[in-house]
Amino acid sequence: MDSDSTGDFSDPIPTADDRVVHGLLTAWGDHWSGRDAERLARAFAAIDGASLGGRRWPLAARVAASFALAASLLVALSAFVGDRVSAAQTLAWLEKVAAEPIDRRYRFAIKFRKPRPLGHTEVTGEFFVRGSEASLQRFRIGDDREVTIGRVRDRVWIMGMRGPVIVRDREDTPRWGPPADDAAPELLSVSAVLSKVKTGYQLEFGDSPNARSRRLVATSETPGGERADSATLDYDEATGSLLAIELRWSSEERPLLMRLDWEESTALPPDWYENHNHHGPDRPVIDRSTPRPDAEDAGPTSQNRPNRVPAQGCS
Amino acid sequence: MQHDADARRLFEALVREHAGSLTALLVATLDDRHAVDDLFQETCIVAWRKLHTFDQSRPFGPWFRGIARNLVLAHARRTRTVLLSDQLDAVEQRVQEVERRPGDTFEDKLEALRACLDRLPDKYRAALETKYLHGLSLEESAARLEVTFEGLKKRLLRGRTLLRECLASRGMLPKSG
Question: Could you give the ipTM of this predicted complex?
Answer without folding.
Answer: 0.91
